[in-house]
Inverse folding.
């Protein structure tokens, strides 16, 4: 259990670092997008590269940030039963089983589908079909990487919950509906 | 066994409901439903094994969708505006301006809700900002608890109907219509909704005058010119921001996404102007925006996995046949759709409805010859109620978070009910008077924002290999 818990701590730490990157991408993407609109009308200049970097950043903030959102328990649930009827123990069990049967298989299969796509793009050094566009493989790499990170975070959450059930650690897994 | 194969689509629909009710995060429950029934479908020979490979293109379509970028931008803008001091200024000055009339503070809240709604696109920002600022004075000057809670929740909620609303962007994306048209179509219903709210305050002030008293003289510290100056101090930057975001969209200068980004810059500038721009404020805004965006897009990913398989096992046809054969033709369909969304909104929040339910309803609506802009605005008007439904409505939930402990949760719930009524009336008006939507599309859209020159080519999507 000790080894597992330190693995979980490692994953948590790593994904928290990535969340900082994802946070910055929000601000950068907004500034770049506003800059694009402004430069198009003020200087009549526009560049496909700058337009594309916006959604590269969007992909980054989603795929690198989502594992941290899972750590913070901020992925929205239908909490009709979960919130009202389930006891804390039941909630922990739901999270453990959901992690094993829902989250992990999905992440595995999505990684399985997206990885070859990246490899292909890497092999041919694929570039955007737009003039001045960006190379494509980094954003295609983000997909499998994002799902692997999500799977790791899923494992970490499962470990923490099992540890909590066995009273190895004291942890609260309070769920509140995320603000929108 | 053939029974299962023949009815896999309805079974899958039922399976989705069960998987979601378990209470595991919706994004993964949805995707798991998709995978589980995908394997069943392969097993029964309904879909080819390589069919799931289409997921890759769908995922790429999500992350390269320029329109979805509007989600972080509008959320970020709202997060900054919520705490920059603009709402305080507006509520304070207009509260004093309307104060002498009975129900004056309520009118001020409705008015400021509409102004904030025209600036930003997220409900949370409006409800929290207005709740924090006006709840205490309203209660202090003798407004009844229920009325206070209701008017704040409702006025915050209209944000999602008034352009530039995030809800409209997502609906436009899901229905494949232009955001500009969606925005133009929502102008009329927004005005009607504000009038309905004011009408309700007027009724209350005649029937229960003691619950909406006028402000006492000593509370009105500003008079005449000083008061007007104060109002202007709030209104001028607001109008500037409205122009920056909405104006640029309607004049075709920017895409909705870019308008959202300029809104972010505008909001930062405004916060700086008010002297409230600090690094923690900005960084917290970035962090909460990132988490919300990631969460929402993951729901979309889950929904795509689900709907790809659902289509594969014949779900689209099943739903479409069911919906188009409803008695009463298009009116029957509309009534059904509206009642269905009203009810489902008790359990699902907006993004789940938009990504799961809307793609099921849209093809049927199109087949029945219903104008999708009108339909979208109608859904948007209806979905307002999902923010107000006890006990899960977001607006009520935010209010609970900021209301003092002495206020009973049941008062918040009861307070919301008459306002939900006005929202239902709006839905009825829009159904029977489509011109309330279409009038504004024809008159405002001299320029089509979809013609804004954007050079990004979407990756070619290969046709789905439906068997």
């Amino acid at each position: 259990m000790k080894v597992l818990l330190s693995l979980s701590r490692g994953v948590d730490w790593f994904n928290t670092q990535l969340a900082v990157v994802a946070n910055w991408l929000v601000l950068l993407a907004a500034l770049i997008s506003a800059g694009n609109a402004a430069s198009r009308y003020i200087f009549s200049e526009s560049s496909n590269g700058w337009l594309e970097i916006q959604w590269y950043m969007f992909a980054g903030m989603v795929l690198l940030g989502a594992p941290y959102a899972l750590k913070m328990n901020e992925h929205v649930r239908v909490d009709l039963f979960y919130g009202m009827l389930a006891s804390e123990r039941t909630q922990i069990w739901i999270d453990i089983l959901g992690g094993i049967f829902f989250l992990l298989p999905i992440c595995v299969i999505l990684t399985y589908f997206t990885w070859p796509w990246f490899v292909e793009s890497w092999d041919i050094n694929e570039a955007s079909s737009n003039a001045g566009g960006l190379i494509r493989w980094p954003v295609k790499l983000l997909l499998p990487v994002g799902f692997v990170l999500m799977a790791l975070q899923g494992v970490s959450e499962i470990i923490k919950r099992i540890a909590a059930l066995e009273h190895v650690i004291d942890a609260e897994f309070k769920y509140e509906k995320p603000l929108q | 066994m053939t029974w299962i194969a023949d009815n896999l689509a309805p079974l899958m629909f039922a399976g989705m409901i069960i998987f979601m009710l378990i209470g595991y995060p919706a994004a993964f429950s949805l995707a798991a439903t998709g995978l589980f029934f995908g394997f069943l479908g392969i097993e029964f020979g309904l879909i080819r094994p390589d069919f799931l490979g289409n997921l890759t293109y769908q995922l790429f379509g999500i992350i390269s969708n320029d329109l979805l970028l509007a989600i972080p931008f509008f959320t970020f803008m709202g997060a900054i505006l919520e705490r920059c001091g603009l709402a305080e200024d507006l509520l304070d000055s207009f509260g004093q301006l309307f104060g002498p009339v009975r129900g004056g503070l309520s009118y001020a809240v409705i008015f400021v809700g509409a102004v904030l709604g025209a600036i930003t696109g997220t409900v949370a920002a409006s409800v929290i900002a207005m709740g924090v600022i006006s709840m205490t004075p309203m209660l202090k000057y003798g407004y009844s608890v229920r009325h206070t809670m209701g008017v704040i929740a409702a006025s915050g909620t209209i944000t999602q109907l008034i352009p530039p609303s995030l809800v409209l962007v997502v609906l436009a994306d899901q229905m494949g219509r232009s955001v500009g048209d969606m925005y133009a179509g929502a102008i009329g219903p927004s005005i009607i909704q504000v009038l309905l709210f004011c009408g309700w305050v007027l009724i209350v002030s005649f029937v229960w005058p003691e619950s909406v008293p006028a402000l006492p003289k000593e509370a009105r510290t500003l008079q005449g010119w000083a008061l007007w100056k104060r109002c202007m101090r709030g209104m001028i930057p607001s109008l500037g921001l409205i122009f920056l975001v909405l104006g640029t969209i309607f004049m075709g200068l920017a895409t909705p996404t870019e308008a959202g980004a300029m809104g972010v810059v505008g909001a930062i500038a405004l916060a700086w102007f008010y002297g409230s721009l600090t690094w923690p404020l900005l960084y917290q805004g970035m962090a909460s925006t990132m988490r919300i965006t990631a969460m929402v897009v993951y729901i979309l990913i889950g929904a795509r996995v689900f709907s790809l398989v659902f289509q594969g096992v014949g779900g689209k046809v099943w739903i479409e046949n069911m919906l188009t054969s409803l008695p009463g033709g298009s009116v029957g369909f509309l009534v059904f759709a509206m009642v269905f969304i009203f009810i489902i909104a008790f359990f699902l929040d907006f993004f789940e409805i938009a990504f799961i339910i809307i793609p099921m309803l849209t093809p049927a609506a199109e087949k029945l010859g219903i104008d999708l802009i009108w339909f979208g605005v109608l859904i948007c008007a209806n979905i307002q109620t999902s923010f107000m439904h006890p006990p899960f409505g977001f607006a009520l939930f935010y209010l609970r978070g900021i209301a003092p402990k002495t206020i009973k949760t049941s008062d918040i719930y009861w307070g919301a009910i008459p306002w939900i009524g006005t929202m239902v009336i709006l839905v009825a008006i829009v159904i029977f008077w489509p011109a309330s939507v279409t009038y504004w599309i024809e008159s405002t859209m001299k320029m089509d924002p979809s013609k804004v020159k954007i050079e990004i080519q979407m990756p070619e999507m290969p046709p789905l290999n439906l068997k």
